[in-house]
Structures are given as C-alpha cells and as structure tokens.
C-alpha cells in the first residue's frame, strides 16, 4: 500500500480563480514547442512551496524549493489570463501592463534570439530534474521525500524578474526556453510571462521566505552518504571461508521510567540474538539464525511445537523467530549459555557492549550471583582471565571493552566504527544510515518498556522489531565493511592475534614483523627500561615544514610528493639498528660509547677494514653499506613496498570492479601505514619499545636534505619558470605563473623525473596533482580545485586542515565555508559570496535555520582526564546527566552533542550549553545566533578572505538586527514565562507584516476576504506540512499514533517536525483573528 502523503491543490479566492491558476501553471510547464491548448490537457501540478535563492557550482545563482518553504499567496502566484486571451483575442493594455510587457520582452529577447538559431524545433519531452515520480491522478502528486537533496535549477540575472521556480512536488519545470515554430501562438506565451511579471512586480515588498536548512555545497551522492554501498565481502573469492561463527546480542530491561537501565535494579525481560556463520549452522542448513529469549512466568516449556508454546509473542503477530521462554532471569542466563554451547560462536558482539548488550547481561547476572562469564567461556576454570569489571582493565575499557572471555573475542562495534568511518557521532542510527544506507528510528527505554508491558498485545511487536533490526544490523555492518575479513588478513600479515589488530598500537605491529626477520639472522632485541630511555640523547632534527606564502593563487600550483619517503630513505641508505656504527666523533675509540638506550663498542681494526664501505648521515651518524651488511629494517620495508606495488598494479587491472578495487585499496593502505610508522618505532623516545635516536634522527635529517635539494633544483631551473611556495616533510607546492593546465602537467612530469634522477633508488618524486586555483592559509591548511589527470574536465574540491574536513565545529560552518570557497574559485565575484553569507546569517538570526546544522559533537575523554574546574561542554553536560542518572555517563571517546543558546547578559559561555533534546522540548530556548556567527561561522571565512583583503565581519555588521516575538504567546496568556520575549506580543500584522497595535492592520481590515484567505491558507499550509512529516515518521517507525515517539537526533525529519509544530502553535491565535471577520 502506498503510504506517500498526497498534497491537494491550494485553493484561491474562488473556484474560477483556482482553475485559471492551474491553467497558467499547465501552460508554463509545456515543452519547447507545446501550444497553450495542448498544455491545458495536462494534470495540474500545483506548487505549494516558495523557491529559495541558492548558489550552484556555476557562476549563476540557482534557486531550489524545499518542503519547509511556505506557499505563495494566490495573488502572488502566476495567474493566467482569461480564456479569451488564451484563444488569442486582443484587447487594449493598461499603462501598467504595457510597462510590464516591455520588461518581459527585454527578458525574453536573448531567449528568443537563441531559440531562433536552434535547429531543433520538434516537440520534446519535459525536462526531468528530480527522480520523484508524479502521479497521473489529476490534482494529486507525490510529496517530496524529506531525506532527499533539494532540487537545483537555474535563475536568471538578479536585475530581471525572477522566473517561476520548480516545485519539489513536480518533475516538470514551470518555465522553459520557448522555441519559435511557424504558426505557434507566441502572443499567448508573451501574455503568460506578462502575468508572471505583473504578479512579481506587485509583490516586491513581500518578504522572501527561507528554508530551514543551511545552503551547503552539492552532495557527492543523493543523500550525503559517507560510505558507498559496495559490499566488500562480495569481492572475495567464493572459496574463501573463515570458518567463524558470530553472535550479535541486544537485550531489553524494564527501566524505571526515563532512567537508563541499571543492572542493580532493572530486570531483563527479553534477550535478542542473531547467529551468523559462513558455513551451515549445526542441525540446520541455514547460515543465519535470529531468535529471542523471553521471560514469561506463566509458561516455562521450551518447545518448537505450537501446542506447547505460550501465546505471549504469537498473539502479537511475531513469527519467523526462534522463540525460547524462561521462567525467570536465571533461566534466561541458562538459556543463553546453552545457545552459546550449542553453536560455539567465536565472536561475541554488540553495538555497545559496556553499558548494554553483553556488558549489561554480565553485570545483571553478577547482581543475581550468577557467574555467567565462566558459563559462556571456552575455559571456564580460568577465573583470572574471565573478567568483565572495568576496574580490572582500565586500558580495555577505554579502547575496546573490559569484557574478557577466554576463548572468545568480544567486539564493541561502535568503537570499531570510529576507525572505519569519519562521522560527527557514532550512534547506531547514524552509522547504519551511512554504512547500510538505511534509516532506523530511535525510541527511549521508557517507550520500549511501555510497549512490552502494555495490557494489550498491539504494541509488543514494535519493541521486538526494534531490537531485531539492531541485532541484524550489527552483522550487516560487519559484512558491509568486511571487518572480519580485513582484520583477519591484517592479523596474518602482521603475525599478531585478531583482537590485537583492533586494540594494539603501531609499535606492536612493527615489532612483530621485524622480529620474524631478525630471528633467522640471530638478533635479539633490546628491552630498555624507563631509566635507560630517559638517559638517551635528545632528538636534534625536525622535518622540513616551510611557512607557506599565504594568499589566493589563481595560477596553477603543482603538488609533488615523495613516494614513501622515510621507508625509501631507510632502504636507499641502509639505515637500521644493525648497521649503525654510532656518532663519528666516537669512532676509533677502544672504549664503549653511548648508543641509543644502551652502549656500543666498535673495534678500531674492524673499522679500518670497512672504511670504504661507510656512509655518514647529515647529522654525523655512520652506517655500513649493504655490501657489508643489509639491515633488518631495509629488508622488511623492501618486502612491504614491493607487496604494496603489486597490490596497486592489481587495482589498475581490476579498476572496473569497484568493490574489489576498494578492498585492494584498503590492503595497500594498510601496507603503507605499517611502512610509514616504522620510522616512529625507531624514534619513540618516551614510550618506545626499542628507540634509537641515532637511527631516527638520521632518517629525518636525510629526508629533510632530500627535500631541500629538490626545492633548490626547482627554483634554480630557469626553463620551468617555477617557484616553490610551500613544502611539508615529503611534499612541495610549486607555483607556475601563467601556465595552462596542459603546460602544468608537462612541467610537473619533468620536475618529478629530474628530482628522481638525482636520488638513489627507491627514492622517487611523484607528480600528484594540479591545484587551479587554490588558497594556502598556513602550515598544513590549504584548499584548492584539484586536477589529477590531464583529461579531467571537472575539478575536485580538495581541502586539508580547514573546517570543511574537520569535525570540531558544527555542520553549518563546513557548509558555508565550502560553498563560499567554491563560489570564489568559480565566479571570483565577491558580491555573490557576500549575498550568500548574509542570507545564511539572516536565516540564523531570524530563527529560521534548522538546529541540526548547529549541533556540536565532541569526544568525551572521561571524568578523570579533565583538570578540576575544566569548562568543557561535554564534561558539563555529563555532570548534569549524572545528577539525574548515574548510568548516563558517556563512554570514553563517545561524541556528546550540544548547542549554544541565548542567556542573560554576563553569563559564562559554559552555562549556555544545552543538549539538543532540551531545545526541542523547550520552546523558550533559542540558538545563540550571535555566538554562532561571530565565533564559529565568520572566523574560518575571515582566514580565507582576509588573504584577498576582504573583511567578512563587515558583512555581518551591515545586516539588520531583526528579532520578532512569537505570536503564540497571545494564545496562551497564562503560560509559564521564562524569557523577556514572552512578556511581549508581536506588533506585526500576520497578513502584510506591517506594524500595528491590533491583531490585523487597518489597511488589511478593509479587505476582510483577503485576510480570511491569507490566514486560512497559512493555517492550512502549516497543518499540511505537519501531516506530511508525520506520515514520513509513521512509515519509518511503524507507529500510527498521532504522537511520534522517535527521538533520533540524526534524522532531519525530527527537526523539521519540531519547527513546524512550533509554527503551528500560533494557529489558535490566527483562528482568533479569523473570528473577527
């Protein structure tokens, strides 16, 4: 059954006016050569949304429509002429019509000239811009999916009247270029444009309606997913079987109303599990099994026969589940232990297994004096290693989880996702949206408990469906990203355990690979203690990071990068622990001298024998050449780089297979990372396992010397006409003044070849890309339009270190900054950027911006990691939550969302921090527009545009300070007043927006029919928006009550619905005004 909301045409003054209005829209949506009579046969698609100005990636502004935009009043919309005019009958024009006619002719003149030159005059199908289907039913069309990207279309010059835009409810544009055909009725088209121009001239003083979303850059895909949908597991060979069994568990506890589940007080009512394996499960041919264990005191028989099953879940309509019933919680613990023994899973997982899932299960069992940890362990007698208390594993509780079950791996899925996907928060709903491309609702524990304990059986299925979707979703995310397969391959590559790939650091991996090579060569690693590390010589060299010439570059800037510079230096010059002879000032001595954390002695006679096979690094450290002894590190890194080269060649061979290419890219990235962190292993002087500052400093200094020689070569070669404007460790940015894109690629290849020829193998300079144009801000902060190949037509927006790729600000900052930079690169028109920025600031100041764009989300580091009295928003919110619920503390590393609101003058900023839910529930709270604009939005813009002499803060100072009191306060005079604005009522007329001391101004009172239509239309439009949003929520949640219990902050519909409900609160006041007419 189609549950898509339907939108009926908006009524006008009379039925005749509606018919004429629909005819006008039908005529304007015809093709290039469609006549007016043909267009009248089309079903009317009435737009109820006002198009909003927006910028496209081109030089022009574009306009888009949003479901949040209020409708245009009928007298401001395009109204068609009477039927006589449509039939071509002439009549005298008034003076105003003649003036508008001249304006329209000037508007259409360039269009007519272009069309007359066009050879194509056949009828065409209407241009389809949106994938939304239009119903054939007259007067009814599908509503816009609010998860979709706003529809973008062109807008003519600002000085000309704005053409009627495209409604999101229709797939046909209302205005198209007109093609002149012999015999076509051009007078009809001219009069239609004349009517539109008249209505727009008449509505000049009408304020422009704005949508709630901040206008950001065009999305890379339809819905803004951060992860593509390719299933990496499908790229594997069919015969590759891991022989692993996984079980995903979530559970429901009967909570004490709004509190989080507490294992000391809240009993477990049901446990949901999903078992998955790549081979058939025991006693079945299935590879996946989903089930539930329910506590029901009235039925204790556990059987597959329907005659012996309790109707607790059957009468709720729940089928296709493996249902098991237990008499009490201890029986539930025994049932889950039996299931684990029966299927013997290797991996136990849950989305959050410390406070919920397995963690809550073990804590609740301990509260009831049941040692479930030993019951589900493969080695139940090991009481020391079988543990789940955070006090016994501080490191584990902060990195993965404190749960340790011998013989089984426990995975905390949300912590794994932190390293896989870069998101602003890692709730199950947000991660599943980006990874699985599915929207999941979120319900509070109070709602879930009410559903399960309801007297009727009509709600229990909702709770079951909520948890079943999560236990299955956990396994789907693992499969989608192939986490098990990738982790297994990395474990085999590094020679470490599966869990250590996820929990241990880079030194552990390097040492594992290095020792496998060192052992056959009879080397024993040194294990220095803390005192030995502290006595080691301090490092003397730092990488070369030049201060860039900060400015906007309109010419080509080449980016050249040394390919794996540090590993290449180690291989080329044979730098290693086993090849180092120490500092040259100590050579030739008979005594031992300081070397790293220990000491070294080089006999003078041995030194004399190898005197011709010694190389000295720039910092004065001697090494032997490979002809004498090849080091362990060069051997290891050479094998890694060769393997990575083979993987990259396979990527080129199978580049058509996107899933396989993505999997291979992950493999080569893992090899690259292990190669690059090898240098860190030699130079980790504080917490390193085997640091040696002589080796580490030699690598850094030689790499610095290599980059300096490359920079000197580029600057001294006159034929290139190039100049290095920035250098960073292993890369350099080269400016080519006046060079075309073709010349830039040619010179870039020549530079790469020339520099590579001056260095020993395998040191290689690679020409990466061309920036045209770009902005260099400071060190490690730059942005530009990137071209990677000569035949690339469209540039790619590439940013490093600026707010568009950082997650420590709100989404609005990233959207506005990226859009402004793209406008600068494409148009070079500061006035367009100024208009765009001012329009977004006005949205925020007028309270029309969506709160979703202004939510910060920063990591919580744990209460013990902050200094006493620290003013950190995440810590402040945590303190407030802990005063209400002791189980509400976020996990270490979890991102805590918050917003900044207005407060009384002089209040510290930390006291203005609020959770987004508070703002949704309390209509008296407002976003602090001054803080967001002056402290968040404008400073990043100033860092970019100050380089070209633009003061963006003046743009903000030019804006009017508009703040209107809400009219809803009149309808509830006895309500609680918390802010000063609630003690005052609006003095603006709801019809014309003029100031008045009465509800409706005297000018509008003289037109009662006009007032009645406007107010009724505004009320009806708000109710229509609410109904449309509620229908979307009903389809997603499966709840058909008027109140939607979903509280997912990751869903844009939640904020749209909250905004519409606030606007709808003024409906009683508007109805009071209607009673006066």
From TrEMBL:
Q: Which GO biological process annotations does it have?
A: DNA replication; double-strand break repair via homologous recombination; error-prone translesion synthesis
Q: Where is the composition biased (Acidic residues)?
A: 52-61
Give the enzyme's EC designation: 2.7.7.7
Location(s) in or outside the cell: Nucleus
* Keywords from the named record: 4Fe-4S, DNA damage, DNA repair, DNA replication, DNA-binding, DNA-directed DNA polymerase, Iron, Iron-sulfur, Metal-binding, Nucleotidyltransferase, Nucleus, Transferase, Zinc, Zinc-finger
Instruction: Give GO MF terms, alphabetically.
Output: 4 iron, 4 sulfur cluster binding; DNA binding; DNA-directed DNA polymerase activity; nucleotide binding; zinc ion binding
Q: Which cofactor does it need?
A: [4Fe-4S] cluster
Q: What does this protein's UniProt record list under function?
A: Catalytic subunit of the DNA polymerase zeta complex, an error-prone polymerase specialized in translesion DNA synthesis (TLS). Lacks an intrinsic 3'-5' exonuclease activity and thus has no proofreading function.
| Name of the featured protein | DNA polymerase
Origin species: Myotis myotis (Greater mouse-eared bat)
């Amino acid at each position: 059954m189609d549950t898509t909301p339907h939108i009926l045409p908006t009524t006008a003054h009379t039925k005749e006016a509606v018919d004429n209005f629909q005819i006008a829209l039908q005529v304007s949506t015809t093709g290039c050569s469609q006549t007016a009579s043909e267009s009248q046969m089309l079903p009317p698609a009435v737009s109820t949304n006002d198009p909003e100005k927006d910028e496209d990636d081109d030089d022009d502004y574009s306009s888009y429509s949003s479901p949040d935009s209020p409708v245009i009043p009928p007298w401001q919309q395009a109204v068609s002429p009477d039927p006589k005019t449509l039939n071509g009958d002439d009549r005298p024009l008034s003076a105003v019509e003649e003036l508008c006619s001249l304006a329209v002719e000037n508007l259409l003149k360039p269009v007519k000239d272009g069309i007359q030159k066009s050879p194509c005059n056949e009828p065409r199908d209407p241009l389809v811009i949106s994938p939304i289907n239009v119903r054939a039913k007259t007067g009814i069309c599908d509503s816009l999916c609010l998860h979709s990207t706003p529809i973008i279309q062109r807008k003519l010059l600002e000085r000309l009247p704005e053409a009627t835009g495209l409604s999101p409810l229709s797939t046909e544009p209302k205005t198209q270029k007109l093609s002149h055909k012999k015999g076509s009725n051009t007078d009809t088209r001219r009069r239609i444009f004349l009517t539109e121009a008249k209505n727009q001239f008449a509505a000049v003083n009408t304020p422009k309606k704005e949508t709630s979303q901040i206008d950001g850059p065009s999305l890379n895909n339809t819905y803004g997913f951060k992860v593509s949908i390719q299933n990496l597991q499908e790229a594997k060979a069919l015969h590759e079987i891991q022989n692993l069994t996984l079980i995903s568990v979530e559970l429901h506890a009967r909570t004490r109303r709004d509190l989080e589940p507490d294992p000391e007080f809240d009993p477990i009512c049901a446990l949901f599990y999903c078992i998955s394996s790549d081979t058939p499960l025991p006693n079945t041919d299935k590879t996946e099994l989903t089930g539930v264990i329910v506590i029901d005191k009235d039925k204790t028989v556990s059987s597959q026969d329907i005659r012996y099953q309790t109707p607790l879940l059957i009468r709720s309509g729940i089928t296709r589940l493996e249902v098991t019933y237990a008499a009490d919680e201890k029986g539930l613990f025994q049932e889950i232990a039996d299931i684990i023994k029966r299927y013997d899973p290797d991996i136990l997982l849950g989305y959050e297994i410390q406070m919920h899932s397995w963690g809550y299960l073990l804590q609740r069992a301990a509260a009831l004096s049941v040692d479930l940890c030993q019951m589900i362990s493969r080695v139940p007698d090991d009481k020391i290693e079988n543990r789940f208390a955070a006090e016994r594993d501080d490191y584990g509780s902060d990195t993965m989880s404190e749960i340790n079950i011998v013989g089984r791996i426990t995975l905390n899925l949300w912590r794994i996702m932190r390293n896989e996907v870069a998101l602003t928060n890692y709730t199950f709903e947000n991660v599943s949206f980006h990874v699985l491309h599915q929207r999941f609702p979120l319900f509070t524990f109070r709602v879930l408990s009410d559903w399960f304990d309801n007297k009727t059986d009509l709600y229990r299925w909702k709770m079951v469906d909520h948890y079943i979707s999560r236990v299955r979703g956990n396994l789907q995310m693992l499969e989608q990203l192939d986490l098990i397969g990738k982790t297994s391959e990395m474990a085999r590559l590094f020679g470490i355990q599966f869990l250590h790939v996820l929990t241990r650091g880079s030194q552990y991996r390097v040492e594992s690979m290095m020792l496998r090579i060192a052992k056959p060569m009879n080397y024993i690693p040194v294990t220095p203690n803390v005192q030995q590390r502290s006595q080691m010589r301090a490092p003397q060299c730092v990488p070369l990071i030049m201060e860039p010439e900060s400015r906007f570059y309109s010419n080509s800037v080449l980016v050249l990068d040394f390919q794996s510079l540090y590993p290449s230096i180690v291989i080329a010059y044979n730098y290693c622990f086993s090849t180092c002879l120490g500092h040259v000032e100590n050579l030739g001595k008979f005594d031992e001298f300081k070397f790293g954390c220990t000491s070294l002695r080089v006999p003078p006679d041995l030194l004399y024998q190898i005197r011709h096979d010694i190389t000295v690094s720039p910092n004065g450290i001697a090494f032997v050449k490979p002809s004498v002894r090849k080091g362990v590190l060069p051997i290891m890194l050479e094998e890694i780089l060769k393997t990575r080269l083979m993987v990259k060649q396979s990527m080129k061979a199978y580049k058509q297979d996107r899933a396989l290419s993505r999997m291979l890219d992950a493999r080569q990235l893992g090899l690259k990372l292990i190669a690059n962190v090898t240098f860190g292993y030699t130079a980790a002087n504080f917490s390193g396992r085997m640091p040696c500052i002589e080796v580490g400093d030699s690598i850094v200094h030689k790499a610095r010397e290599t980059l300096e020689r490359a920079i000197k070569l580029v600057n001294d070669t006159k034929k290139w006409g190039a100049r290095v404007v920035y250098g960073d460790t292993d890369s350099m940015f080269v400016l080519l003044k006046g060079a075309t894109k073709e010349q830039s690629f040619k010179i870039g290849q020549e530079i790469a070849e020339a520099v590579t020829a001056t260095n020993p193998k395998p040191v290689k300079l690679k020409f990466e890309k061309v920036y045209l144009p770009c902005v260099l801000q400071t060190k490690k902060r730059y942005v530009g339009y990137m071209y990677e190949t000569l035949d690339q037509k469209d540039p790619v927006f590439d940013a490093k270190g600026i707010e568009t790729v950082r997650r420590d600000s709100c989404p609005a900052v990233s959207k506005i900054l990226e859009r402004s930079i793209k406008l600068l690169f494409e148009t070079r028109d500061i006035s367009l950027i100024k208009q765009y920025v001012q329009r977004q600031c006005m949205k925020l100041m007028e309270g029309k911006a969506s709160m979703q764009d202004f939510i910060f989300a920063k990591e919580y580091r744990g209460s013990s990691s902050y200094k006493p009295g620290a003013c950190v928003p995440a810590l402040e919110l945590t303190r407030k939550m802990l005063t209400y619920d002791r189980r509400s503390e976020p996990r270490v590393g979890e991102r805590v969302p918050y917003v900044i609101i207005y407060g009384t003058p002089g209040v510290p900023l930390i006291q203005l921090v609020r959770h987004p839910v508070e703002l949704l529930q309390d209509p008296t709270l407002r976003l602090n527009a001054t803080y967001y604009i002056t402290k968040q939005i404008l400073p990043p813009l100033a860092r970019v545009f100050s380089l070209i002499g633009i003061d963006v803060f003046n743009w903000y100072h030019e804006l009017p300070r508009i703040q209107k009191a809400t009219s809803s306060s009149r309808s509830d005079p006895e309500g609680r007043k918390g802010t000063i604005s609630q003690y005052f009522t609006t003095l603006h007329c709801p019809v014309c927006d003029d100031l008045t001391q009465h509800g409706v101004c005297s000018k509008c009172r003289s037109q009662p029919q006009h007032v009645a239509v406007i107010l009724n239309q505004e009320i009806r439009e708000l109710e229509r928006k609410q109904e449309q949003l509620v229908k979307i929520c009903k389809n997603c949640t499966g709840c058909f009550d008027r109140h939607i219990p979903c509280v997912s902050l990751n869903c844009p519909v939640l904020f749209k619905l909250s905004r519409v409900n606030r606007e709808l609160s003024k409906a009683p006041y508007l109805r009071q005004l209607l009673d006066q007419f």
